[in-house]
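Slide 14.
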Amino acid sequence: MNTENIEEKVIEFIASKVDDVDVSTINATSEFEELGLDSMDRVQLLFDAEETFGVTFEDDEVKDFHCVKDIIDYISNHQSSAPS
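Slide 15: predicted structure.
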């Protein structure tokens, strides 16, 4: 899956978790805090992404995720090593 498709899917996941944000304003540089995602929303977002993209997020790496692009980049970099 290419980066653009990954971004679309991650934004779709985020949109399902936030009520008062216009989905068209969410992009790769959107920060989780400004979107109103709390820690539980972020955990669920990562679970959704793991299931969809077949990657496993490492705890020591995800603590540094602050924006949508952080997740997209992680998936892009780890997806090729994930089982199909």
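Speaker note: The first helix runs from residue 3 to 15.
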